[in-house]
Amino acid sequence: MSFRNTDPADAAYVEDVSPGSGALPPRAWYASSDAASLSLNGRWRFRLSPTADAEDDSFAAPGYDCGDWAEVAVPGHWVLQGDGAFGAPVYTNHRYPLPVDPPRVPTENPTGDHLRFFDLPADWPAPAAPDAGGEGGAVLRFDGVESCARVWLNGTDLGEFKGSRLPHEFAVGHLLEPSGNVLAVRVHQWSAGSYLEDQDQWWLPGVFRDVTLLHRPAGSALDFFVHASYDHREGTGTLRVDSDVDGRVLVPGLDIDVETGQVITVPVRPWTAETPHLYDATLVTGGERVPLRIGFRTVVLEDGLIKVNGRPVLFKGVNRHEWHPEHGRALDLATMREDVLLMKRHNVNAVRTSHYPPHPAFLDLCDEYGLWVIDECDLETHGFTGQGWRDNPVDDDRWTPALLDRAARMVERDKNHPSVVVWSLGNEAGTGRGLTAMAEWIRGRDGSRLIHYEGDANCRDTDVYSRMYADHAEVDRIGRGLDGGPLGRRRLPFILCEYGHAMGNGPGGLADYQRIFEEHDRIQGGFVWEWIDHGIRDERYGFAYGGDFGEELHDGNFVCDGLLFPDRTPSPGLVEYKKVVEPVRIEGDGAGGTVRVTNTFDFADLSALAFAWSYEVDGEAVETGALDVPALAPGETADVKLPEPPVDGRGAETRWTVRAALAGDSAWAPRGHLVAWAQLPVSERPLVSVPASARPAPDGRGGITLGPGVFSARTGELTAVDGIDVVGLKLDVWRAPTDNDDGASWQPDARHGPLWRTLGLHRMRHRLEAVEPGEDALTVRTRVAPAAAEVGLRTVYRWTSDGTRLRLTVSVAPEGDWQVPLPRLGIRFGLPAGDRVRWHGGGPGEAYPDTAAASMLGRWEATVDELQTPYVRPQENGARADVRWAEIGQGAGRPALRVEGEPEFWFTARRWTSEQLDAAEHLTDLTPGDTVWVNLDHGQQGIGSQSCGPGVLPRYRLRVRPAEFSFVFSTP
Ligand code: IPT
Which of 612, 771, 807, 815 is buried most, with the most CB atoms less than 10 Å from its CB? Predict the structure, then answer.
């Protein structure tokens, strides 16, 4: 055996379309059994080479001196370690960062040689028997390596593999020594496999999942398959555990003790995502006891619907990439659990594992806590779209073995999870024979689940008609059966495998989608794109995105499009989604004192929830109490009477808030966790009356006073209210465009961000026409318009006062032919200070016209800094909706500035201007100034989802039309 690599062809496997050689056949994954195992995670010795064949492979031989090598953590990606010494991450959406020359890859192919030395624990079963996987011996398991690896143990070449997010095992029992074992792994960043892994994410080479040595006792199973179905008519579960060796299956909770292969039917509690009942069990073979957690459930396609245990399900899903801001796709169990808990706490009931099988332990958590899973294969060839899909590997028989290998590695690994209800062939891989081969193989191996793939409009191989980013109107047509697609012919259920592109501020329009989903049986829900921003923690940028590492080809912040910020803080988009998909509908008539409660779960009754009311006067709860709601079955509705209002709310704005919260601790949230809510108005807010009794008068210093207000006589601008300095109060229409305002370049519809900029709305000019002190008012007439355009907004500010309060009425009359909606319409001004803000209105988080479902009316308080939403790429954010009044604190001992609105307004305050926000590319570009800039808006343009989906629905567009709105300023 030679360790010298003199022939570059030794690395030929890198460019070989085959999945590899030497690995054992795939099998079911389980976290542990009573057989010995040894984690090989930890610090490994590491050497990086610029090319695949530049270094020889003598490092794999025992005795090699790796004295000057560096170290990396395994699991890990080398580009995220070594402070830049090991290269850098690269982000592209669907463009390959290599010439599209399949299956070849550039000579510049960063190659990481890894070495791990280990001794067997003293109690490791000896002797290491002759090896045949399950026939005694040991296997070495890699749960994930990107993108291609060759493995040696104690100098023996075990083989090589591709398929980054799939497990690969090697038989090693015959090679193990009690001590001084040398495991050598050579990893190439690019390989033929890269062509199959063109997912929209960072390219991150490395041994990024666990490496484990598993003892395989004589007589242990090579593989086993748990078949556990549920008959909803009989209430029984049927269990059969197939295994290649005979053994017994023990389920103590069901008094089951049967042989493998034997079928047994007993009454059981079924598993669903809402009621994730698992039975602890053990598979006992000659050499091993494997703990199992069995969930009984049956998935079928019936009447054109996806049914579980006899009932159609509605997916309230998310697309989950694996992400950690420091460790990339190397996730620990705590982070995976945090994802699951966050999903459950936000009423999410489904995950599509976009776009590869996740770390296998994640699926254990989905079983345990209850989530429907679409398990997606590690396959995407999106970059071939640039050449009209010519040479697409999925339509080229030479690649089919690799595709089948990927399908098998996913299905065999994950087949025993009740949470997995659908297999997905992959994402964005065009169409072709290879996909059909995968689907046929999967159907043959596992007929108990459905098959999904979005990329083939004909749904040739699938059980589900799936689309991404279809707009509301089209989904509604599909729901009505009016579209001519595959649905019409084959009565397939429909899902949106991606929608609601959560890039930056947004997504907008989720509530509108949900109404459509709920209206049509055939629409079985959707999966928001996506779960988490893939920002990389970085000193200079806060969180880095595409281009920040000097990539020559990149797709910018398109990689930050999640419902969670990179550090897993929920964004307002997730809070909105939680409200939109809440499993209880609460409606009613506040004045009439009745509430209608509907259970919108598919399986669970409402016994886990406790209902409560609160009665609020001017946003303050004056009394609360429990509301008796029966434990409604799924789909049931009850009308419940509210108590008599506890106080006489006449002359005030009053409402009921009804909340449904966890009645006791659950596995995923403590007692009291809010699940669903609604507000029912009783009486409306009285109008703010400010009789115009004060007169404008010269103040002797070139100014004009009016009640508490001081104005510049020359410009008519307000300069102070009750001694609080005010700067630059004027009409404002600009907002720092959001990613959804900007839209994606390929979008066919009007993309408002660029149109606004072309028109010049970011550089409006204000022409003063007149300052008119009158009998009881100060009137300032202006025209506000962008340079180089004939459109304009004739704007009149009319100021009146009752002596203590100052009222401003703004009248806006558009001129010219406005072809675009406005970003916002309101006033902006600066205050010298501003710490805490109190308000009565929507909160606690931000809201925009089409992202306001979760905005709860009440009294809220926050600092100016807390009002900011830290979108990774700064953009418009932080507005609070439906604000009745707000008080902006001016520091200790000084009165706050109070603003009341008529009608209600959008409130925004920040320590930088919209222009600075607009110019910033990273959060670290924003440095607070001395002034707090306040926007009080009469209108805001909706948000939409045009960064990859439909734009703002017409009803949420801020059309240019005459408007009038008022604010009352005072110091309370
Ligand atoms: C779609 C992809 O499936 C997903 O991976 C991601 O890139 C998403 O878009 C956008 O963030 S494909 C798109 C061209 C519709």
Answer: 807
